[in-house]
Amino acid sequence: MNKPAKLWTIGHSNNSAERFGALLQQHGIETVADVRSQPYSRFSPHFRQSRLRELLSGIGIGYLFLGNELGGRPKEPELYDDAGKVLYDRVARTERFADGLRHLMAAAATQQVAAMCSEENPEFCHRRLLIARALLKNETPPSVAHIRGDGRLVSEAGMQAPNTVAGPQLALFDEDPH
Length: 178
Known about the structure:
This protein has 178 residues and is of the alpha/beta class.
């Protein structure tokens, strides 16, 4: 019996190269699948594609570029609304996206793979809002876990759970009791 597939996600954010590498190693990641449409960083040059490959190679982690297939900023204008917002439901129906998911999950079947983008918080990133959601619709969905910048691992199931704050919600402003 095959073990269930697992996928990690991570956002490089503004981490140093050393910190980013340590996060990957902490979670046993063997391959980074770069899902950025444009594999560079204006603010963190060590996350430009060529330098990222070198960084990962230096710590024994593979690199797989899937930004053309799974990137959050597709080239086709019909995949955007009139305000310029990407329509993820349309992206998810493209053959290119389906091919990218197959390639990603084929790698994840034999290695510990982390889909990487720039956004640290997966709540606001296409690696969760597009890629993970599409994968979770599969007949046999993988488990998805998000590596946070502080090193915590947050399951997708945990992110979908309703916010459970102990006790009543505090008022934003003090209310006058009189």
